[in-house]
């Protein structure tokens, strides 16, 4: 059928298009009660985002029927009262959101739900069918006393109100499983709350003013979702209680948009799937997070991180790892090369254009070039490792070549500090480094120090909204260990590492895939084999406790130059890789019928290369 419709395409004739008067009557998704196809009582459809399970969209948002006045011909005024209606759904839920209710008005709404014979019924039998109550986006400063009669209530949403404390009435709701108190004015969570509400599975208290959590938070053993922050805001938490790691059922933990300075060192939560600690003031994250093998998303963006533990590569199920907008000048190569996940690294100094270009002539590029030419031998610093094998645990090394365990204990920095200084004490730094940093993280600290001294953009915390109120402190211990390099400074390239017998025995078992029962081995070898082995960047061989660390600059997924900390199993592997990086990789371009083919000079024999060059010259001479 061909129809002429002037309003389409400038009056052109379209084939297969019906005119407007013959179009079938459409059935809108929303309920229609008026002539224009829309319900006049619907308001604020966007608010349905708070409850996506509602269907059809927006049906629960209706205009309040206010008392109105009507006058007749005789001038008399009649008041039309609000018509009561049944508000409880068949699924046992009651929606009283966006009503502008106060506490006394909420009590009246709950009393209006009583059946006609309510005075003759027991109090707990009046609301036995009500399992979900939504009183969000009102003006409640407290909860009415009759809410305690909802003995079967399992879901309560009281977000976006004016609550300043956890209402005591909630403690009578012993069956409560989901409690949503986002966007209120709460200042704390009472100590008795975990004992009074042990059945909680979900607790959402984001966008409040909470400064601390209860020390007995471990009593929430059934809780799976704990939200203390969101895109709407967080709280004022500066630390998390250690008992949070004992919430074994916890799957989703969101503490974003707070003021956290550190995380519990033993951050092993076996069933944790989603962890969000973004928009805080974290300087490091504990290595124990790598033991959360169920983790799928890890968001540590917009913090003060200057180093990352390489053990995070053990998170095999991780799907998203967001480390953007931190102070990272270098990253472990294992995370960049071995993690099969979506990795977001933008906004760090290691990705700033020009900062990591080895061909640049600025001071920072010269420092990077010198650091790529040196390697640092790494051995465990713990006394327990040295006391078990050979002289001071190092087997082949002489006793005077290895520092004693006493020399590894933290000492006061030679740089004097005033008692009023905001810098953390040296023993605190030693504890943080033992639980949060790799043994070779001194390279990260050194490079971060140079970047701050040279005012590299992104190397210091900025004064953006997510870092408001923070102070950048360069600890004197860190500064005493780093020397600012200039063009005449020469870095030591010594990387003479002689492996201990303990390390050699462990490598033989690992590289030959020997199935040796642990009870057949000495205790120290069984301990080493139980650890996660590391992989050499050159030979791909396994090692455990001893390696050589160096710096490389390579491209990564669209970033032309990313600084990475690389580990080699021996000095020989490092020197081999260093020599390969110095060799030029010249390429010849051969054009065949308009397509370009790149041929590596190293992989092409001399005679073949001469023939290719002769063919290119002949083709050029024949071209018009």
Strand-helix topology:
Layout: E1 2-4, E2 13-15, E3 68-71, E4 77-80, E5 93-95, H1 103-111, E6 132-134, E7 155-157, E8 178-180, H2 193-196, E9 202-204, E10 225-227, E11 252-254, E12 274-276, E13 297-299, E14 320-322, E15 331-332, H3 333-338, E16 342-344, H4 363-371, E17 375-378, H5 383-386, H6 426-436, H7 442-453, H8 476-481, H9 501-511, H10 523-530, E18 534-535, E19 542-543, E20 547-556, E21 559-568, H11 571-582, E22 587-592, E23 595-600, H12 606-622
Parallel strand pairs: 5-6, 6-7, 7-8, 8-9, 9-10, 10-11, 11-12, 12-13, 13-14, 14-16, 15-21
Antiparallel strand pairs: 1-2, 3-4, 17-20, 18-19, 20-21, 22-23
Helix pairs in contact: 9-10
Explain this structure to me?
The strands form six sheets. This protein has an eleven-stranded parallel sheet, with no helix packed on it. A four-stranded mixed sheet has the order 15-21-20-17. A two-stranded antiparallel sheet has the order 1-2. It is elongated. Residues 27-48, 51-64, 80-86, 386-422, 463-493 and 585-606 have low confidence and may be disordered. It has helices at residues 103-111, 193-196, 333-338, 363-371, 383-386, 426-436, 442-453, 476-481, 501-511, 523-530, 571-582, 606-622; strands at 2-4, 13-15, 68-71, 77-80, 93-95, 132-134, 155-157, 178-180, 202-204, 225-227, 252-254, 274-276, 297-299, 320-322, 331-332, 342-344, 375-378, 534-535, 542-543, 547-556, 559-568, 587-592, 595-600. The protein has twelve helices and 23 strands. It has 624 residues and is of the alpha/beta class. 31% of the residues are buried. Helices cover 17% and strands 14% of the residues. It has three domains: 93-305 and 317-323, Ribonuclease Inhibitor (Leucine-rich repeat, LRR (right-handed beta-alpha superhelix)), CATH 3.80.10.10; 306-316 and 324-398 and 435-464 and 474-583, no CATH class; 587-622, no CATH class.
């Amino acid at each position: 059928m061909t129809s002429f419709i002037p309003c389409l395409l400038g009056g052109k004739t379209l084939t297969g298009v019906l005119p407007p008067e013959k179009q079938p009557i459409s059935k809108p998704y929303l309920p229609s009660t008026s002539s224009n196809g829309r319900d006049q009582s619907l308001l604020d459809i966007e608010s349905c985002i708070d409850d996506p399970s509602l269907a059809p969209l927006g049906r629960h948002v209706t205009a309040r029927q206010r008392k109105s006045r009507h006058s007749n011909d005789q001038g008399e005024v009649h008041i039309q009262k609000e018509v009561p209606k049944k508000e409880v759904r068949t699924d046992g839920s009651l929606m009283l959101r966006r009503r502008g209710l106060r506490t006394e008005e909420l009590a009246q709404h709950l009393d209006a739900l009583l059946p006609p014979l309510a005075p003759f019924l027991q109090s707990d039998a009046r609301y036995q069918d009500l399992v979900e109550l939504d009183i969000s986006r009102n003006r409640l400063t407290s909860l009415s006393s009759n809410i305690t009669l909802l003995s079967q209530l399992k879901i309560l949403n009281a977000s976006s109100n004016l609550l300043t404390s956890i209402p005591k009435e909630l403690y009578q709701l012993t069956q409560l499983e989901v409690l949503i108190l986002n966007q209120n004015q709460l200042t704390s969570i009472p100590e008795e709350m975990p004992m009074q509400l042990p059945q909680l599975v979900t607790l959402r208290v984001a966008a409040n003013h909470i400064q601390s959590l209860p020390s007995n938070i471990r009593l929430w053993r059934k809780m799976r979702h704990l939200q203390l922050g969101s895109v709407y805001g967080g709280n004022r938490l500066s630390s998390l209680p250690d008992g949070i790691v004992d919430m074994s059922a916890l799957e989703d933990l969101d503490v974003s948009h707070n003021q956290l300075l550190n995380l519990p060192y033993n951050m092993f939560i076996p069933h944790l799937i989603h962890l969000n600690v973004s928009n805080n003031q974290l300087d490091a994250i504990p290595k124990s997070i790598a033991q959360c093998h169920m983790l799928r998303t890890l968001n540590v963006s917009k913090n003060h991180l200057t180093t990352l533990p390489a053990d995070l590569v053990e998170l095999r199920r991780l799907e998203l790892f967001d480390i953007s907008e931190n102070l990272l000048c270098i990253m472990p190569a294992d995370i960049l090369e071995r993690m099969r996940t979506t990795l977001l690294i933008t906004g760090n100094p290691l990705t700033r254009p020009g900062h990591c270009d080895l061909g640049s002539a600025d001071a920072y590029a010269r420092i990077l070039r010198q650091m790529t030419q040196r390697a640092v031998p790494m051995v465990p610093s713990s006394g327990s490792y040295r006391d078990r094998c050979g002289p001071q645990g190092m087997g082949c090394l002489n006793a005077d070549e290895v520092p004693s365990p006493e020399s590894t204990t933290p000492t006061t920095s030679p740089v004097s500090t005033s008692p009023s200084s905001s810098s953390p004490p040296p023993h605190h730094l030693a504890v943080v480094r033992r639980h949060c940093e790799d043994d070779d993280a001194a390279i990260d600290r050194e490079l971060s120090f140079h970047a701050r001294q040279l005012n590299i953009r992104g190397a210091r915390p900025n004064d953006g909204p997510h870092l408001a109120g923070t102070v950048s402190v360069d600890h004197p211990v860190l500064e005493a260990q780093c020397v600012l390099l200039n063009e005449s400074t020469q870095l030591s390239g010594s990387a003479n590492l002689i492996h201990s017998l303990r390390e050699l025995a462990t490598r033989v078992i690992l590289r030959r895939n020997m199935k040796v029962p642990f009870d057949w081995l000495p205790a120290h070898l069984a301990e080493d084999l139980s650890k996660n082995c590391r992989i050499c960047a050159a030979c791909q061989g396994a090692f455990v406790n001893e390696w050589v660390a160096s710096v490389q600059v390579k491209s990564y997924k669209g970033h032309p130059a990313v600084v990475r900390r690389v580990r080699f199993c021996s000095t020989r592997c490092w020197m081999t890789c260093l020599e390969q990086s110095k060799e030029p990789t010249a390429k010849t371009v051969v054009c065949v019928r308009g397509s370009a083919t790149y041929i590596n000079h190293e992989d092409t024999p001399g005679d073949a290369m001469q023939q290719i060059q002769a063919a290119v010259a002949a083709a050029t001479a024949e071209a018009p």
